[in-house]
Amino acid sequence: MTGDTQRSVPHPAWLPDDAFAAVGSRRVVVAGDGVLAGTVAEEVAAATARFGGAFSRLEVGDGVSDAELVLTLAHSDSSSHDHSTDESFRFTREAGAVVVQAETDAGMLHGLFHVVRLGEAAFEGPDADETHAPATDLRMLDHWDNVDAHPVMGQVERGYSGGSIFYDNGFVRADLSRVERYARLLAAVGINRVAINNVNVHAREAHLLTDDLGDVVRIAAVFRRWGIRVHLSVSFASPITLGGLTTSDPLDPGVAHWWVRTAARVWDAIPDFGGFVVKADSEGQPGPFAYGRTHADGANMLAAAVEPYDGLIHWRAFVYDHRQDWRDRSTDRARAAFDHFQPLDGAFSANVILQVKYGPLDFQVREPVSPVLAAMPRTQIALELQVTQEYTGQQKHAVYLGPQWSQILGFRFWDLAGGDGGSPTVADLATGRGKAAADPGTGTWHKPAGGFAAVSNVGDDEFWTGHPFAQANLYAYGRLCWDPTLDPEAVLDEWVGLTFPGAPDAVGQAVHAVLDRSWETYEQYTAPLGVGFMVRPGHHYGPDVDGYEYTPWGTYHFADRDGIGVDRTARTGTGYASQYPSPWRETYESPSTCPDELLLFFHHVPYSHVLHSGKTVIQHVYDTHFEGVERVEAMIRAWSAVSKLVDPRLSERVAERFAEQLRSATEWRDQVNTYFLRKSGVPDERGRTIYR
Amino acid sequence: MTGDTQRSVPHPAWLPDDAFAAVGSRRVVVAGDGVLAGTVAEEVAAATARFGGAFSRLEVGDGVSDAELVLTLAHSDSSSHDHSTDESFRFTREAGAVVVQAETDAGMLHGLFHVVRLGEAAFEGPDADETHAPATDLRMLDHWDNVDAHPVMGQVERGYSGGSIFYDNGFVRADLSRVERYARLLAAVGINRVAINNVNVHAREAHLLTDDLGDVVRIAAVFRRWGIRVHLSVSFASPITLGGLTTSDPLDPGVAHWWVRTAARVWDAIPDFGGFVVKADSEGQPGPFAYGRTHADGANMLAAAVEPYDGLIHWRAFVYDHRQDWRDRSTDRARAAFDHFQPLDGAFSANVILQVKYGPLDFQVREPVSPVLAAMPRTQIALELQVTQEYTGQQKHAVYLGPQWSQILGFRFWDLAGGDGGSPTVADLATGRGKAAADPGTGTWHKPAGGFAAVSNVGDDEFWTGHPFAQANLYAYGRLCWDPTLDPEAVLDEWVGLTFPGAPDAVGQAVHAVLDRSWETYEQYTAPLGVGFMVRPGHHYGPDVDGYEYTPWGTYHFADRDGIGVDRTARTGTGYASQYPSPWRETYESPSTCPDELLLFFHHVPYSHVLHSGKTVIQHVYDTHFEGVERVEAMIRAWSAVSKLVDPRLSERVAERFAEQLRSATEWRDQVNTYFLRKSGVPDERGRTIYR
């Protein structure tokens, strides 16, 4: 399974051989047909061979009296489930013997990995009978990989883990063994859809849709064995650039026909192809606006082309004026997605999914949850997260994003923090379940649901993700897609258990000490109180407080000698706060009720403004920046105490990353503190060193 | 003479055919041998054929009774002057007949262009007998051209005029016709040396010294016909990278021997080769420091290798710590060249020239004159200027640099402004003439002199220089090298007369209205009062007030809510001011005597500090930024009134550049004003619009 075009045999991540010890040492039966049942059988056969168990492949319903683990289809005739999206499984344990039964072979595969995750615990404890099903059928990862290396963005846009696992030097790799390993890792955490190319579709990538479709067929074949469907990002201008037409007007019959024929060819080659991802009329990408058409016109035309195949159109809502004038304080980029899309609620076809970033700006360490998620009850909306750490340390900083995602998933638009007045969570809205499935109060629910999407963080790096600890983010994303209510610390436990099997407890404790509050730590030493950015333009790494302040990108903090923040209130500001339903519109509207962590996102306040914490804004800036660096130092101490207990290569990589994190955090601390000391003139009340 | 590998036939710049009307319509005799006499004869033959004059080629001393212009060697035997550097000529006019007589054919060529520049005026007026000689033998242009396009810097580092005229796609161009046109333009303004590759010597360019020497031979052959010698920039690591040695230690005999052999090969191929340009131990370039050797060790080793051929080593003094910590206010990049080199005065060999930028930082619109120029009386020093507008608008802004250079050339280190207490000017120091040749007071003079060098601004652009008006900078540089005492406005007159022959007077008046104060205008709308930078990092175009404030580059302004500027005094600052001799060290030391335009270079002062102009610093910032944009608007009006009177392509190019200059100047005005309003809180006393 080594690929000589890959840099090295990659780290096993959360599927080292030892993770299969519990399964592999038992008598296991696999029963049922289907491609994924075959995959399950191969996994079990390999594990039992390694760990001394026994493996039998039987027909459904055959006698299995002495088996300790049975993985089986519920019915011998699985053909009726060929097109089923049912991925659930039933887990029963009776006197230490486990049966996993599923309606489809996909359910069997998820059941197997459920048992793997549990390890010995799967076979211990009282008898059990549980049914497990994913919160949504749509659990997707987007790869912003370029076929040709982009002159600025490189081979993977926002890639901090080496080159692409799919492409090399302008072509799809001949050796896809690394993709196979990746598909297995994704299957083990429940991901079932992957878009394999950048949403910024350049000339070379565009051809995946047509001339190079054969290569997509090869990639899809690899993912298929792991229950994962492949999607492509496509350019809205494809009828012109690939089809030789003179227009890509969505209402032009020739354009629609071109897409119909193109979709037919794609599904003819890949019957289980997933669909198209589109970034249109955003940051220079082409779209329907050129023809005076709406986003709905554009999306629905594509949707019609893919509808016969149950194909999906993921249409991104990341649309804003990226040629803004910093002098103009009335334009607010944060408003843009809502302003563009909310009026189109109900206008999209049933197989269009509007893909909405979690916040109104761009994957900052702290943003309010995007109001678009609450504003379109008649639209399928996917919540878009970012596993790749674009603004959160670029896989040089140890930042575990599970707590951020968990907080977003649990946010309730119609209840204040901690409340549960019967209103759905963001996860409910994205999955169409829970409180969003049937809310008798409003009658507006039975929400159509778009599930989850996120930007992947892997590359051809030895550890997949640059920082070995960034594997935990990929792991957590998959697990939270399956069950958004999981506790992110418990998910981290799972990841540690699988990734460091047999390691002393101290290793797991150290990982927790490093990662549990690492998102908060990163927030502490970077942009304060929700104001965002303050990063170096272009690559977005490291501090530059005024880096975006006078640019066309619409991301400002408006700091002056008296105060800082963006007034987004309805009363005196841009009105963004009123895009939220009550009670949040009122909560955000007033600095006296706005949560501290978002204060500067919603309000321009004097440095002397007193937070709910009792500190002034300026002292909060100083305190958090000093504390953030102290916490990084503590993280390093915690890890150093156990680093000799793990694989020395991993240990070396982590040490190298920590050195950079400490350097960078210190630079953040000093630049931010100096910037605000120079501007405010207010000294640190504790007299610590702030350079002038 | 068209080159089909070039984009188009380039604009004739200051040598349109019509510039030769006065010469071409007369009876002209050319007498004398030598390559350049041949060039003179060709020029005259072409001009007389075009304008109906008559051309005779005679022997020196032949009767020439009816000639209206005679260009002749002084002696029939020119062989004694083969290696002479005498470029002077004698111009006599008697009853309207002109004789140009020179000791060498180079002098003849300069004499011809002298007559061309004068036009009809050469033949008019009273009888005359004048001897013209250049202020220095060393009048050089450096090309920062890369053979291979650099991934960041492109084909020409700091090039704002398209690609290289020398190189294309990794090779020296087969068609050098554009180089020939360029050589002719340079000869016409008196340039006599050209370094043809970037001082940052990358892998590809390094081979010009060895494998690709044949291509340098071809380029040298083109320049030779125009009296111009070719130099190469070389890497100090060449013995390793090209020679396969394990060291480039200047005291290693093998290294010295490698350079001796390499120099022998170069001069064998190009007997009039000029020498090597070296950027060592600066901004990542290799140098003698790696071996614990000094700059003198390094330069002298190279000097020994080229000495048998009268070769020169141009050793750049642009050496500083580019990994500075912004937190450390004691390190001062401005001090670096002096601190590095002044202790080495007298240690350099006779054929080493220390090439010193005009200011201590990096070609800013305003800097104090570098104290290194005054600090090394026993060292040949070349003054380095920058014709390419790196920090002065990148040939998008109309900025005539003649006045800046004239001010620098006329600066006297031992006299206050306007004084002439017997002390030499910077031009005297660079040329070893004037007051520097013999100063009875100090007895330290008879200064060895390194002449002038500058970074060229040409590329394969249709107008050579991007902005057609930037041609005037190239023209003025050549003319000021020949005679540093020329009035830059008079030089501009010359350029206008040659470039727009026959145009109505209004054109010349408009060019003057645009360019005469354009340097000051650019200063007005960019970084104020000598503080420098405030540009976008990397490309250095457009405003970013804090762009370099927290970087390792050592270029800071230290603006806070109370004041701005860098304390470089001896008493409380970095001590840079004391690098100057009296009276300037005392003058710069005190804010009460420091000239306004350099105040923030030398002092950190409150915004309320009152300038000699009577304005506060903050009001000066606002006023100059408003006035700068108003002046650009006036420039555009002035030019618009005459733009239809010139070549429409040139007019179109100028209009396009003016649109960008106005946009950019407005952006500068608003960013700088807003930055300081936010920081100081002081409103504009005239109540103009400053965005908050």
Walkthrough of the structure:
- The structure is a homodimer of 692-residue chains.
- Chain A is an alpha/beta fold.
- Chain A has 3 domains: 17-132, Chitobiase/beta-hexosaminidase domain 2-like (Chitobiase, domain 2), CATH 3.30.379.10; 139-499, Glycosidases (TIM Barrel, Alpha-Beta Barrel); 522-566 and 604-680, Alpha-Beta Complex (Alpha-d-glucuronidase, C-terminal Domain).
- In chain A, 33% of the residues lie in helices and 13% in strands.
- Chain A has 21 helices and 20 strands.
- An 8-stranded parallel beta barrel of chain A has the order 7-12-13-14-15-16-17-18. The first copy, chain A, has a 6-stranded mixed β-sheet with strand order 2-1-3-5-4-6. A two-stranded antiparallel sheet of chain A has the order 8-9.
- In chain A, helix 2 packs parallel to helix 3 (105-118), helix 8 packs across helix 9 (295-306) and helix 20 (617-640) packs antiparallel against helix 21.
- The model of chain A is unreliable at 1-7 (pLDDT under 50).
- Chains A, B: Keywords: Carbohydrate metabolism, Glycosidase, Hydrolase, Polysaccharide degradation, Xylan degradation.
- Chains A, B: InterPro entries: A-glucoronidase_C_sf, GH, Glyco_hydro_67_aGlcAse, Glyco_hydro_67_C, Glyco_hydro_67_cat.
Give the arrangement of secondary structure elements.
The structure is a homodimer of 692-residue chains.
Chain A: H1 21-24, E1 27-31, H2 35-51, E2 54-58, E3 69-73, E4 89-94, E5 97-102, H3 105-118, E6 128-132, E7 139-142, E8 145-150, E9 154-156, E10 167-168, E11 171-172, H4 177-189, E12 193-195, H5 203-206, H6 213-224, E13 229-233, H7 238-241, H8 253-269, E14 275-278, H9 295-306, E15 312-316, H10 336-341, E16 352-357, H11 372-375, E17 381-386, H12 402-409, H13 426-431, E18 449-455, H14 471-482, H15 488-499, H16 505-515, H17 518-525, E19 563-564, H18 584-589, H19 599-602, E20 605-606, H20 617-640, H21 648-680
Helix pairs in contact in A: 2-3, 8-9, 14-15, 15-16, 16-20, 17-20, 20-21
